[in-house]
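Reopening this ticket.

The earlier resolution said the output was attached, but the attachment link was broken on my side. Pasting everything inline this time so it's all in one place.
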Amino acid sequence: EALTIFTAVFGRKSKDVALTLGNTAIVHGKLGQYERAMKLYDEALTIFTAVFGRKSKDVAETLHSMATVHQ
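Inline output:
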């Protein structure tokens, strides 16, 4: 529900949407739904990269999270 609200308020390419996608990915990863988690992280990464550029804290954190999905 939060994702729907943030998307409606801020648009699909916003930091709030990307953060929500990342948080949702964490849940899916913990549930063992690795493929879904990676898709959500990838979407968050695309948004963070578009908003902040490749060399940003948010991009680095998302890449790190993606690397730990299967742990």
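Reporter confirms the inline version is readable. DSSP finds four helices and no strands in the chain. Residues 1 and 7 are 10 Å apart (CA to CA).
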